[in-house]
């Protein structure tokens, strides 16, 4: 490995010194006890043997350690990048840290794997007979095969048995909670106890049920061809069907015959077991007849000749035979009445209470209450699939309302119809309302909206449409609800003059006198008719100033501004305008600027011609919300009120003076003179 040192010096940027040997070999100069010739120290270095540590040196190979630093040979170390001292390879092995796989070695101890072969450290393996790498014992555990019992371990996964206890692998057992050894499942099968159903198996002997299918133990069943579970023989006895004659048994219950004497016995009439065709123990069927109270299938099984509910009984009305005082099988005489067509001796023998050569079917004309009738020849809810007899009149018996002509059954008695019985009956058009009495009068109170009707007179609203009473409306052609006149007054539109009323709001004219609506007049103290304000405007006299108007014709001043009668602008001008800036020229800028720091209109007094327009525009960012614009006077309303935005334009079609102002700032106003 010393051949690596020049390579190391090349990597460090150094040049290997040239080693000379001018003295002839064996000259004896290297043993004269004097530093002479090319020696770097006494009798060493140069052509002589390398010097020990601490000696003077000139080159690395002049030192035993191959390390010459600052002219002195150094002690070998594990970090000098030179193979020296007892090292197996450069700076590893010997007293240094172990060498890795591939590095040179002298002994196993030089290697991290503790395996030195052919003077090279080997990588750990699972077959090198050495505990190395991740192994927990020699060649096992870690990444190697699991360890055998008795080997070291750190966890269950290190052991072939899957059991690591006190850092030692244990041998498999049938109680260690693991599937190991020859077990087919955890702690069962193989040499361990049999496995339960659902666990793994290799052969039937691994299973408690002795049934192993597709590697899984199956539950014992009555069809697995194995005597298992609680069976007394193969697939019979215990919870399975009874065993045939000759099979093994423990009790009679294991046998189909119910007789067990070590093996199942054939049935007999003396084996003290109910088996074979017997209906009870050793009786009935082909055996002697059974006594009273014993089980039976047919009367012939009984000594009494009567079998009821599979028991031998004394003769009775339920034994299926005609006996005693019965007129037919189990009916008549002292038994229950017979059904239609059965034999009888008198009415009491029949359920219909009609015996005429035999029991007769109930009829609605046999003068007997029978069948489904609720009284003699009536009732039985004929229209509901009952007897088909007529409904009963008041006072006769009933079961349901349909048994009665009134459809009212109380305390099992049919009641006379009424307007408060909660039933639609008699002439009523709906439940307890509508209809006419036989004398032409009302049968019951009129019906409300949504109830059935036949005539308008059936309804409180006097309106019947599609056989249903309608709610009062203001267009149904009937005086109903709160109306004071036909479809008017109350909650409906006001009534015309002459129609009934109870208050002024009932009338179109808002004038109610003597229970009748009056025509509008110019002296009734009410705004009505064509009036624009109370008793003025429209067809009445013109309105005074400040009264409401629709047009100038409604006002004595002939000026209607913003719906209020007003004066025309004064002849002396408005807002101090006696002279006007002439803006009549076609090219003139007819813009009135408003707002700004002075809060004024500019120009405030302007003259234009008919047909021209004037624009109002805010200055300095002012808007109509800062200076609301309104017209104050003029021949007609042209300047409409502006409360938002910053610009508006108005066209003037009539000559005259038009005053305007800001409704927020007193004294801020102007006028426009419109000339022909």
Quickly describe the structure.
The chain has about 675 residues and is mainly β.
Question: Overview of this structure, please?
Answer:
The protein has 676 residues and is mainly beta. 1% of the residues lie in helices and 13% in strands. It has one helix spanning 4-11, and strands at 68-69, 72-73, 116-117, 120-121, 164-165, 168-169, 212-213, 216-217, 260-261, 263-264, 307-308, 311-312, 409-410, 413-414, 464-465, 468-469, 512-513, 516-517, 560-561, 564-565, 581-582, 591-595, 600-602, 605-609, 613-619, 629-633, 647-651, 656-662, 669-675. The chain has a five-stranded mixed β-sheet with strand order 21-24-29-28-26, with no helix packed on it. A hairpin with a 2-residue loop joins strand 15 and strand 16 (468-469). The two termini are 128 Å apart.
Please give the structural blueprint.
Blueprint: H1 4-11, E1 68-69, E2 72-73, E3 116-117, E4 120-121, E5 164-165, E6 168-169, E7 212-213, E8 216-217, E9 260-261, E10 263-264, E11 307-308, E12 311-312, E13 409-410, E14 413-414, E15 464-465, E16 468-469, E17 512-513, E18 516-517, E19 560-561, E20 564-565, E21 581-582, E22 591-595, E23 600-602, E24 605-609, E25 613-619, E26 629-633, E27 647-651, E28 656-662, E29 669-675
Parallel strand pairs: 21-24, 22-25, 24-29
Antiparallel strand pairs: 1-2, 3-4, 5-6, 7-8, 9-10, 11-12, 13-14, 15-16, 17-18, 19-20, 22-23, 25-27, 26-28, 28-29
């Amino acid at each position: 490995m010393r051949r690596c040192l020049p390579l190391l010096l090349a990597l460090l940027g150094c040049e290997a010194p040239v080693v000379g040997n001018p003295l002839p070999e064996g000259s004896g100069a290297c043993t004269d006890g004097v530093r002479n010739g090319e020696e770097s120290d006494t009798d060493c270095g140069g052509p002589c043997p390398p010097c020990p540590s601490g000696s003077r040196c000139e080159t690395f190979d002049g030192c035993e350690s191959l390390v010459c630093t600052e002219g002195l040979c150094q002690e070998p170390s594990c970090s000098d990048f030179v193979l020296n001292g007892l090292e197996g390879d450069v700076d590893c092995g010997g007293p240094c840290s172990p060498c890795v796989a591939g590095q040179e070695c002298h002994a196993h101890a030089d290697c991290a794997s503790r395996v030195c072969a052919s003077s090279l450290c080997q990588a750990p393996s699972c077959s090198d007979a050495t505990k190395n790498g991740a192994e927990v014992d020699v060649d096992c555990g870690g990444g190697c095969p699991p360890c055998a019992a008795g080997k070291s371990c750190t966890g269950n996964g290190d052991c072939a048995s899957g059991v690591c206890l006190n850092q030692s692998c244990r041998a498999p057992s049938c109680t260690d909670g693991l599937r190991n050894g020859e077990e087919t499942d955890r702690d069962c099968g193989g040499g361990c106890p049999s496995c339960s159903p659902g666990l793994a198996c290799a052969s039937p002997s691994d299973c408690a049920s002795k049934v192993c299918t597709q590697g899984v133990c199956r539950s014992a069943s009555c069809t697995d061809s194995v005597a298992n579970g609680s069976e007394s023989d193969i697939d019979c006895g215990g919870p399975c069907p009874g065993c045939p004659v000759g099979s093994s048994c423990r009790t009679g219950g294991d046998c189909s015959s119910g007789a067990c004497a070590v093996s199942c016995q054939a049935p007999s009439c003396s084996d003290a077991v109910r088996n074979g065709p017997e209906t009870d123990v050793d009786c009935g069927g082909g055996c002697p007849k059974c006594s009273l109270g014993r089980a039976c299938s047919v009367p012939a099984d009984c000594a009494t000749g009567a079998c009821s509910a599979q028991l031998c009984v004394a003769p009775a009305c339920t034994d299926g035979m005609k006996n005693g005082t019965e007129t037919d099988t189990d009916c008549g005489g002292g038994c229950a009445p017979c059904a239609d067509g059965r034999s009888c001796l008198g009415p009491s023998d029949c359920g219909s209470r009609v015996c005429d050569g035999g029991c007769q079917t109930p009829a609605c004309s046999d003068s007997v209450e029978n069948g489904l009738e609720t009284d003699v020849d009536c009732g039985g809810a004929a229209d509901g699939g009952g007897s088909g007899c007529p409904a009963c009149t008041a006072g006769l018996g009933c079961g349901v309302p349909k048994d009665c002509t009134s459809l009212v059954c109380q305390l099992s008695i049919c009641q006379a119809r009424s307007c408060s019985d909660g039933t639609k009956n008699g002439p009523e058009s709906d439940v307890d309302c509508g209809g006419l009495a036989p004398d032409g009068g009302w049968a019951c109170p009129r019906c409300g909206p949504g109830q059935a009707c036949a005539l308008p007179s059936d309804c409180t609203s006097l309106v019947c449409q599609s056989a249903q009473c309608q709610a009062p409306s203001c267009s149904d052609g009937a005086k109903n609800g709160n109306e004071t006149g036909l479809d008017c007054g109350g909650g409906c539109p006001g009534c015309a003059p002459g129609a009934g009323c109870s208050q002024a709001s009932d009338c179109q004219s808002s004038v109610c006198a003597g229970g009748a609506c009056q025509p509008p007049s110019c002296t009734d103290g009410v705004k009505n008719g064509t009036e624009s304000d109370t008793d003025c405007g429209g067809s009445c006299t013109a309105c005074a100033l400040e009264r409401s108007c629709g047009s100038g014709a409604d006002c004595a001043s002939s000026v209607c501004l913003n719906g209020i009668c007003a004066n025309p602008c004064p002849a002396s001008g408005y807002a101090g305008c006696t002279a006007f800036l002439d803006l009549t020229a076609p090219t003139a800028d007819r813009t009135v600027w408003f707002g700004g720091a002075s809060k004024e209109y500019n120009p405030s007094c302007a003259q234009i011609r008919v047909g021209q327009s004037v624009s109002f525009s805010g200055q300095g960012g002012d808007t109509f919300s800062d200076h609301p614009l309104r017209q104050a006077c003029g021949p007609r309303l042209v300047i409409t009120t502006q409360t938002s935005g910053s610009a508006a334009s108005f066209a003037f079609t009539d000559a005259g003076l038009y005053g305007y102002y800001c409704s927020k700032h007193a004294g801020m106003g102007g006028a426009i003179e419109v000339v022909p």
